[in-house]
Every structure is written in C-alpha cells, then in structure tokens.
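Pasting as-is:
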Amino acid sequence: MPTSTRFAVAVHALAALAVNNGKPVRSEQIAASAGTNPVVIRAILSRLADASLTSAQLGPGGGAFLAKPAEAITLLDVYKAVEDEEFFAMHRGDPDKSCFVGRNIQHVLRQTTHKAEAALENELRRVTVADIAHELVKRSEA
C-alpha cells in the first residue's frame, strides 16, 4: 500500500466542503482543519478539480466547493483522483528470471493482490463523501 496521506487528506477536504452546503471554503480553512499546510490542500484540490470533483470560485468570498453532489462522489473516485500508485505495487526492478521464485513470484502474488484490490475497490465504491459527511455530523451531535 502506498504510504501517501493524499487520500485521507482529500476525503477530509471533500467532507469539509460537503458540510458547508455549497458555500466556498478557503484552502487555509481546510488546511487548519486537516492540520497541514494550505499548499498541500491546494495541490490536492487541484487533483480533485482535474477529476471534476471540486471547483473553485476566485476573489473575495471565494474558495473551493464540490463540483457534483456529495452523494455522487465515491471514495474510489477520490482515491483514483489523488493517488499515483496501484494498491499493491510489484518489485521496482525485474526479479531474477533464472531463479524459479524470481521467475514466478509476480504471477503468483498477483493472483491474491488482484482479489484484494477488487474487494478494496468495491468497498471504496460503496461509500460516498455524503456518507462520510453524515457520519461526521452525527458524531458532532453526540
């Protein structure tokens, strides 16, 4: 699995946009909430905008907002928008083809990782940003 935090921060940003009900939110506000630098948030918002998940309004009172309903944005959409790597990466270099382990490991390992990826994708596809926002609101009221 990648060790990037982009996915978690992107979901955080989208949830913040979702609970603000269409009002633009500044990257500085999201950054303060996420405990990171506004530059990080702007980079993530840029990736999300490239995937048509967010948009921005410039000028005074401007900021980011969802480009589509939170119910229409799955966590799989978010993952694909912000992460560069596959869920399970293989060797960086080519394994030794003269070794029976090196020659066969990727094929054998992919039999399992493809099933795991499919299960993970199915779960991420099932949960929307609206679901996350709803849970956040519910927890804040408890």
